[in-house]
Every structure is written in structure tokens, then in C-alpha cells.
Design brief:
Blueprint (H helix, E strand, L loop, with lengths): L4 E6 L5 H14 L4 E6 L3 H5 L8 H10 L1 E4 L13 H8 L4 E7 L13 E7 L9 E3 L5 E3 L5 H17 L4 E6 L7 H13 L6 E6 H10 L6 E4 L1 H15 L6 E5 L4 E5 L16 H13 L3 H16 L2 E2 L11 E2 L2 H10 L34 E11 L6 H8 L7 E7 L2 E4 L11 E7 L12 H13 L3 E11 L2 E2 L8
Parallel strand pairs: 1-2, 1-3, 3-12, 5-10, 8-9, 8-10, 13-14
Antiparallel strand pairs: 4-5, 4-11, 6-7, 11-12, 15-18, 15-19, 16-17, 16-18, 19-20
Helix pairs in contact: 1-9, 1-11, 5-6, 7-8, 9-10, 10-11
The site of nicotinamide-adenine-dinucleotide has 20 residues, from loops.
């Protein structure tokens, strides 16, 4: 007797239950060897008082099954509710979001007919770490954190994925012309790891031109690896260019756990009408079957689905008089796929997931590195300055400070406003005073934590409100901070 793989199933909200029902019917008819463990998450749980949208019983089921097939979730409007998707990704350490994006022309109308790309998006770091603060009455901050192990893990995953799925090129998208430290690290690690895969081509593009090219020449891409926010944005651009957000599935992969879902949301506007397209969730289920090593069932379902699309049997979202033969509802679409199990598409390239070829990709970051020589050389002190003390006046006040650290520059949102500012009316209500023990960035002197604490205490005694400090370090003599614009 075959041992069935336990899979946690969350039906989700809005159209979730109907597309999950359609998907489960197809999985059952194709004899997928899974044991569904239904868990309750999402809107109902939020409304019962679980602010994360997930009760402890569901966590227990997830810990046991380690694999989740999830319908879309509605996050209730209003404060206090955390996104369940972000919670799941982070708690389950799902570091990679893998989104294949394929066009199905001429059967599904789209902007570009020849798309077959996969987006590998970093899933845990970047601005999505969700570390935000209101610092002053007027200024809010969102912290962008990027770690070397995080970059190594996602970039290696992208190359391993390319190798396993016989892809030829990996493109890295970043904005390292502006964010030289965070995105710069991502780009640097990309170059390092690419060197381990000489048979796979690699390139780097700045994310803005990269996004433009995805929109107008998507066929030039194969595998794309990028940071969290850019990955989120380009996934929707690519899905839309390919034809419909209703078609694409996505896998959230960790080394121990994995979650599979459609890329679209809960579509409350069409919920309960039996008109939603279940294809996105079904394609996610195919990714899941490959992941749990049931490649033959995955092949059978994908081919039956491709044949259904080729036969022009379409749900309303992709129906067109020109390309379709029959408009069907959600459950009728599932029946059409079931009727084609065992058939292959004739226009599209049939799926053929080979047994044993797609063993789970495990990736870890944190390659051994020689630790850099880290030296404390100064501090950035952010000040709430609600009474608009001009930068010149602030600087002469700070000149009175008795410390080895001296004021080097004052900036406002990254722009130098003292000394020698040419700005007409600088914004000073939120400003940053940089203190170092020497002016020359090429010959920075080490300072002690005690000096910084004593400096802060003096600022406090002067009545200045310190809202944040950021230590300035060098690493093996290299600056660990950027200079101000205009410095
Ligand atoms: P959405 O993806 O739900 O809907 C956007 C549009 O696409 C709507 O017109 C909808 O009818 C249509 N659509 C979406 N899926 C479809 C399908 N399978 N078949 C046919 N048409 C489909 O996006 P939204 O309206 O911005 O969000 C609705 C809710 O979903 C929000 O609460 C949002 O937070 C949530 N959401 C959840 C997830 C997730 O669980 N992964 C992802 C995105 C949005």
C-alpha cells in the first residue's frame, strides 16, 4: 500500500473554498497520494480574535505535515491585523517564493506570446521585515534589512532551481546604483555564487529597466532572482503580461516546510458565484506534487490542464469569443480537467516531470567567512527638532560639546544641510548629526562606546531629543556607511 503524504489544506476566504474544492476534486481523480489535514485560518479566525489569523491547532497541524496548500486569505481592513501570509512565510522560514510565469497563447489572450520565466523572490528580509517606526510628528521610517546569509540562501536556491529545471540563465534585479550597501550586497553575492555555476549564464539589471523589459520583452528572461519588494512587484507585472493573474501558482519554499498557493487574492467581488478560475491554485498544487516527489501525478494533471486550455474550455476571466470554445464555471472547469486526465496537449509542450529528477532543493546561507576587523568610528544621531532650530544654530550649539567626537555634517533625509549648504530652506525638523573623531574619512579614528554614551548624555542635557542613533563602523578599513548626499 502506498503511504500517503499528509498535507495541511486551508480553504481560505472569498473564492478560496470553491477553487480549493475544484482543485481537490482533480487531485483525488488523478490519485495524488495525499492525506488532507484541513486547517482553519484566515478571516473567520481574525474575527474570532486571533490577530495573526491562525490558531494554535493549525500551527500544530503545520508542524506535523510541513506542507500547506492554501486558498487565498482576506486580511480584514483596519489596524491590528497582521498579514497571515507574511506570518506564515516568516514562521515557517519560507525563504524562497517561486513564481513560474508562462503565456498560453494563442488560447489565452496576452500582451506577449512567448513567456516562460520563473521569478525567485527573497521572502523574509528587505522592507518586508515590517520594522517600521514613527519617529517624529511628521516622519515615518521603514527599515530595509538585507543579510549576507539571506542573500546567499536565495541566490543559491535560484541557481540550484535553474540547474534542476534545466534553465539556461539567471538574471539578478537590484537597485544597487542607489542602495549601494543593501542591494550592493545582493549583487555582489550574486556574482560570487554565479561563479559556482559556470554552465548557467548570468546577468544583472537595475530593477527599473528590468521591470520595463519584463513588460515588453519577457521572452528574454529565464530565471529571475531578486529582493522581496521588487519580487512582489515584478511577479504581478509578469503575470499580467502573461495573460491573467488567475492562472499562476506560487511556491513558498523553506528547507523544512513549504506552502503552495495561487498568486491572486480572495476576489470577494466574484466569491460564491462559481465563476472563479481554479487554475492558479491547481498549478500551485502541481508544484506541490513535484515538491513531495509525486512527479507522475504532477505530469498527468498539468497535461490534462494544458489540454483543457487548448480545447478552449475557459472560465470567464480568460474567456474570449476569439480564443475560447466554451465558457464554464469553476466546478465545470474541474470536470473538464478530470475528463482529460491521461491526455496530452498537442500545441503546448507536454509536462514531463521525471521521477527522481526534482528532489527537494535544500539551501543554506552563511558560508564560512573570515570575520572582518570591525572598528567603531563615530555615530549618527537623529534629532527631533520641532521648533525648527536652524542647522547653523544647531551646529554652533553642538560645538560646545566636550567629547573626542566632533560634529562632521548635519543631514536632512540624507541630504547635507550643514556645513556650506546651498539649500534655500532646508527641512530641519527631522535631522541627523554625524559625529566622528576625525574629519577625514580616509583616516578615521576609533572611538569608544563610552564616548558615544557620554555624547548622548550631553545632547540630552542640552534639551535635544535624540530619536535614534546609528553607530558608524569600518570593516577592514572599508566604510560601513554611506556619505551624505553633497558631503
Ligand atoms: P484579487 O487577486 O483578489 O482580485 C483582483 C481581481 O482579479 C478581481 O477583479 C478578481 O475578481 C480577479 N480575480 C482574482 N482571482 C481570480 C480568479 N481565480 N478567477 C477569476 N478572477 C479572479 O486582489 P484584491 O482584490 O486586491 O484582494 C482581495 C483580497 O485578497 C484582499 O483582502 C487581499 O488582502 C487578499 N489577498 C490575498 C492574497 C493571498 O492570500 N495570497 C494575495 C493577494 C491578495
Amino acid at each position: 500500500m502506498t503511504i500517503k503524504t499528509p498535507i495541511a489544506i486551508a480553504y481560505g476566504d472569498g473564492i478560496g473554498p470553491e477553487i480549493m474544492q475544484a482543485t481537490m476534486r482533480i487531485l483525488e481523480a488523478a490519485e495524488a497520494q495525499i492525506e488532507p489535514v484541513v486547517i482553519e485560518v484566515g478571516e473567520k479566525m481574525y474575527l474570532q480574535g486571533y490577530t495573526s489569523g491562525i490558531p494554535d491547532t493549525a500551527w500544530e497541524a503545520l508542524k506535523r505535515t510541513k506542507v500547506l496548500l492554501k486558498g487565498p486569505i482576506t486580511t480584514p481592513q483596519g489596524g491590528g491585523y497582521k498579514s497571515l501570509n507574511v506570518t506564515l512565510r516568516k514562521t515557517m522560514s519560507l525563504f524562497a517564493n517561486v513564481r513560474p510565469c508562462i503565456s498560453y497563447a494563442p488560447y489565452v489572450a496576452n500582451a506577449c506570446s512567448n513567456i516562460d520565466l520563473v521569478i525567485v523572490r527573497e521572502n523574509e528580509e528587505d522592507l518586508y521585515a515590517g520594522i517600521e517606526h514613527r519617529q517624529t510628528d511628521e516622519v515615518y521610517q521603514c527599515l530595509k534589512l538585507v543579510s549576507r546569509p539571506g542573500c546567499e540562501q536565495i541566490i543559491r536556491y535560484a541557481f540550484e532551481y535553474a540547474q534542476k529545471f534545466n534553465r539556461k540563465k539567471v538574471t539578478c534585479l537590484s537597485k544597487d546604483n542607489i542602495m549601494k550597501m543593501t542591494d550592493g550586497l545582493f549583487h555582489r553575492v550574486f556574482n560570487e555564487i554565479a561563479a559556482d555555476y559556470p554552465t548557467i549564464a548570468h546577468e544583472h539589471l537595475i530593477v527599473d529597466i528590468g521591470t520595463a523589459l519584463i513588460a515588453c520583452q519577457p521572452e528574454r528572461f529565464d530565471v529571475i532572482v531578486t529582493l522581496n519588494l521588487y519580487g512582489d512587484i515584478i511577479s504581478d507585472v509578469a503575470a499580467q503580461v502573461a495573460g491573467s493573474v488567475g492562472l499562476a501558482g506560487s511556491a513558498n519554499i523553506g528547507n523544512q516546510m513549504a506552502m503552495f498557493e495561487a498568486i491572486h487574492g480572495s476576489a470577494p467581488d466574484i466569491a460564491g458565484k462559481n465563476i472563479a478560475n481554479p487554475s492558479g491554485l491547481l498549478n500551485a498544487a502541481v508544484q506541490m506534487l513535484v515538491h513531495i516527489n509525486q512527479p507522475l501525478v504532477a505530469t498527468t494533471i498539468e497535461n490534462a490542464w494544458l489540454k483543457t486550455i487548448e480545447d478552449g474550455i475557459h472560465t470567464a476571466d480568460i474567456y474570449s469569443a476569439e480564443h475560447s470554445k466554451q465558457k464554464v464555471g469553476t466546478q465545470e472547469f474541474a470536470e473538464a480537467v478530470i475528463a482529460r486526465l491521461g491526455q496530452k496537449p498537442s500545441h503546448f509542450k507536454p509536462a514531463d516531470y521525471q521521477p527522481g529528477a526534482y528532489t527537494k532543493i535544500e539551501c543554506y546561507g552563511g558560508r564560512p567567512q573570515v570575520r572582518s576587523q570591525k572598528s567603531l568610528v563615530g555615530v549618527d544621531v537623529f534629532i527631533d527638532n520641532p521648533t525648527d532650530i536652524p542647522a547653523e544654530e544647531l551646529a554652533s550649539k553642538l560645538a560646545a560639546i566636550n567629547s573626542p567626537l566632533q560634529l562632521i555634517v548635519i543631514t536632512s533625509r540624507g541630504l547635507k544641510i550643514w556645513p556650506n549648504s546651498t539649500i534655500e530652506a532646508p527641512y530641519v525638523r527631522h535631522c541627523c548629526c554625524r559625529f566622528q573623531a576625525s574629519q577625514d574619512v580616509k583616516q578615521l579614528k576609533a572611538v569608544r562606546q563610552e564616548d558615544i554614551l557620554a555624547l548622548l548624555s550631553q545632547l540630552n542635557a542640552m534639551g535635544l531629543e535624540v530619536i535614534k542613533t546609528e553607530n558608524l563602523y569600518t570593516f577592514d578599513g572599508q566604510l560601513g556607511f554611506t556619505l551624505a548626499q553633497g558631503q
